Amino acid sequence: LQRSMSYKVLEGNVGYLRIDSIPDQEVLSQLGGFLVTHVWRQLMGSSALVLDLRHCTGGHVSSIPYLVSYLHPGGTVLHVDTIYNRPSNTTTELWTLPQVLGERYSADKDMVVLTSGHTRGVAEDIVYILKQMGRAIVVGERTKGSALELQKLRIGHSDFFLTLPVSRSLGPLGGGSQTWEGSGVLPCVGTPAEQALEKALGILTLRRALPQIIQRLEEALKNYYTLVSRVPALLHLLANMDFSAIVSEEDLVAKLNADLQAVSEDPRLLVRAIMPRENSPKPEPGANEQLGTLPAVPEDEAARQALVKSEFQVSVLPGNVGY
To answer: Tell me, what's the pLDDT at 264?
Structure first.
């Protein structure tokens, strides 16, 4: 287990689980109690989970339902994939388990999966399933686009061998559409693999701050927005808004502005993210810090006229139209 997985709880109470090799279902069943007690239970109290599959290059199809089930809510079963095996000409459906040993990770908690160009095979299928379920934000690089199962065949009686895929994923419900094989899984947030964990923690920090951001926005609308009759609709919108796809401050600002302006019909209602500026110049002592303020009115009449001319242009147009 130490060679194939590791775990810890990071700053901000973020659980971190790294899996480099996925054992088959038989091994997982034998070690289930040990894994729940010594690994999974340590992560259950975390406020969010990072599943690191950047170095996961091998695994067994039989383990897919086992792993996905711990991240799927109880009470229902979900058809996650259909696998076709060419040598046996058989098709196998994969469903989440109705019961698991220990607890499932709460669906109300955020989850991020880290990927790299080395992530392949069964690990790719797990990433693809979690992404399609809407259960995880995928951060990192496009995965390898490998195959679920490879087989090495001797070519005749020669010393040459051919390695080729013998099983393929048909996708949920056996639709036969293109999945991740050959093309890989495209991340939700693309970033070099070595920076993926840092990027994921930044996303989780933003999502952890969302309730407080929305609360302050609601207070500002209730206390200051001049179109009072539209406030209840705006508050209802904020209370029911889906932020599952928010992975950056830019995403949050764009969504808030689009939805708030659509409900209020007010293009002046704007949300902005103000980034702190380091080493910004400080105003000189006595300088007027209020933007847009006119300069002081001079005492001299000529200077007053020059000031007025610099601020106003006055003329009478043809047709005796004042301008």
So the answer is: 95
Residue 97: CB partners within 8 Å, gap ≥ 6? 65, 66, 69, 77
pLDDT bracket for residue 143 (50, 70, 90): very high
Q: Examine residue 305 and state whether it is found in any structural domain, yes or no.
A: no
36-61 pLDDT, tens digit each? 988 899 999 999 999 999 999 878 88
CB 271 within 8 A of CB 217: yes
Residues 140 and 245 in one domain: no
CA atoms within 13 A on the CB side of 269: 24
The answer to whether residue 162 is domain-embedded is yes
Tokens found for residue 109? 């908690």
The kind and range of the H/E element at 235 are helix 231-240
Domain boundary among 236, 264, 292: 264
Nearest in space to 169 (alpha carbons), one of 100, 80, 248: 80
Task: Give the residues across from 167 on adjacent strands.
Answer: 85, 149
**Contact yes or no for 188/131 (Cβ under 8 A):** yes
Please provide the distance, in angstroms rounded to a whole number, between the alpha carbons at the two ends of the chain. Answer: 82
User: Above 80 in pLDDT, residue 125?
Assistant: yes
* Inter-axis angle of helices 196-224 and 231-240, nearest 10: 160
pLDDT of res. 236: 96
Contact 103, 44 (CB under 8 A): yes
Tell me, yes or no, whether 75 and 214 share the same domain.
Answer: no
CATH code of the domain in which 258 resides? 3.30.750.44
pTM of the model: 0.79
pLDDT of 287 over the 50 cut: no
